[in-house]
Amino acid sequence: MTGEPIFIFDCHLDLSMNAIEWNRDLKRSVYEIRDLERGMTDKLDRGLGTVALPELRKGNIGLIVATQIARYVEAGSLIPGWNSPEIAWGISQGQLAWYRAMEEQGQMTQIVNLNQMEEHLALWFNKAIADEIKPVGYILSLEGADSLVNISYLEKAYNYGLRACGPAHYGPGRYAAGTGRTEGLTALGKELVLEMDRLNMILDVTHLTDKGFEEATSMFKGPVWASHHNCRKLVDHSRQINDEQIRVLIERDAVIGGAFDNWMLTDNWVRGKDDPKVRGVHIELIVDHYDHICQLAGNSLHVAVGSDLDGGYGKEQSPYDLEDISDLQNLNGMLTSRGYSVEDIENIFYKNWLRFLRKAWA
After folding, report:
1. Is residue 252 part of a domain?
2. Using one digit for the tens of pLDDT, what is the confidence trace for 266-285?
3. What is the rounded distance in angstroms from the CA atom of residue 311 to the CA atom of residue 240?
4. Hey, which bits of the chain come out as E strands?
5. Closest CA to 260 of 311, 194, 191, 210
6. FRET pair for 211, CA 20 to 30 Å: which of 37, 104, 198, 246?
7. What is the DSSP secondary-structure string of 117-151?
8. Predicted pLDDT at 79
9. Residue percentage of the chain with pLDDT more than 90
10. 10 Å Cβ neighbour count for 81?
11. CB 327 within 8 A of CB 344
């Protein structure tokens, strides 16, 4: 990292899932957590995590979209999850309790409206205040809606600050089929999308199938984003968005957050077997995805950061030249070398997400 770090808004981090299900004290640095996990083998990324609150501050990542995530699965499912929607709801509430504890200690602060966001930005752009004592601002998003026991739970969640929701995650879902499937929204999912519209929530199209994407964007009239998505044109998998979908998102004035999971940066990645350096997966590959979207849009107004760097993986499935999340600052030089202007880079680092929210929350 060289020069003055640019402010970063990261639109997708699973902080509470990492804290609770991985038992990580994210007040500690990434490197302390790795030391504590040395020798542990229960998860692939033990001792290899890249995200913690000190590294967010080091990287000038002062505003994030932080998730609640708890998937329901039916008996016999090959995908891990919880055995009832009520259990999944309980897990999501435990995750909320962790965020609240971080708020009470001044580590984080929840952002639920435009005034709060502007006040938080003023704090982070105040150079007289040391970054290490600034709370990381977070906007709460639900990744996969399975934990909503019924539609009425969406308003309960809105009342505690939920501002975005992605109906789908992986596999079959109560509200929408997700990655690895072909079905679209369920009957409940269509009700959910309409209720999100009523509450003026943000629809996250990430993880929707092609059919679900078409259905949701046709029904939903409010603000839409793709929090962590890359381009199918460059890495051919249904988890990515195709050019037609990108054009739909551009027409909706949406923003697409580039994700740093290696299986979204290169074809045929084998989880738990492939080595990032051997496969040549480096940070600059994300710039190819940014550039593809910018070329389709004719400007830099629809791409941003949605790193997902704590989405159930660590260094073993991240670009080999990324040691921790603060290395996102290295995108500055990479984008500059590709001919992106200072304005373009600021758009990608944070201004596009801010512009989106200023319009959605006006």
Report:
1. yes
2. 999 999 999 999 999 999 99
3. 16
4. 8-13, 61-68, 108-110, 136-143, 162-166, 202-204, 224-225, 256-258, 303-305
5. 311
6. 198
7. HHHHHHHHT-TTS-GGGSPEEEEEEEESSTT-SST
8. 87
9. 96
10. 20
11. no
Q: 114-124 and 352-360 helices cross at what angle (nearest 10)? A: 150
Q: Nearest to residue 144, comparing CAs of 213, 222, 208, 76?
A: 208
43, 22 contact by CB (below 8 A): yes
Alpha-carbon distance 204 to 199, whole Å? 14
Name every residue whose Cβ is closer than 8 Å to that of residue 283 and which is 6 or more positions away in sequence. Answer: 260, 319, 321, 322, 327, 330, 331, 334
Does residue 237 sit within a domain? yes
Position 191 in a domain:
yes
Q: How far apart are CA 25 and CA 19, in angstroms?
A: 6
Domains identified in the chain, total number: 1
Q: What average pLDDT does the segment 19-31 reach?
A: 97
CA distance 213 to 185: 9
Write the burial class of residue 129 (CB in 10 Å: 0-12 exposed, 13-18 middle, 19+ buried): exposed
Give me the CATH number covering residue 118: 3.20.20.140
pTM value?
0.97
Q: How confident is the model at residue 132 (pLDDT cuts 50, 70, 90)?
A: confident
Angle, to 10 degrees, between the axis of helix 285-297 and the axis of helix 243-251? Answer: 60
The CA-atom distances, in angstroms, between 280 and each of 36, 173, 271, 277, 319 are: 29, 34, 15, 5, 8
Q: How high is the pLDDT of residue 130?
A: 86
Cβ atoms within 10 Å of 295's Cβ, excluding its own: 9
The dihedral sign for the CA sequence 331, 337, 338, 339? positive
Residue 3 domain-assigned (yes or no): no
131 and 142 Cβ atoms separated by less than 8 Å? no
pLDDT at 2: 55
| 273: helix, strand or coil | coil
Domain extent at residue 271: 8-360
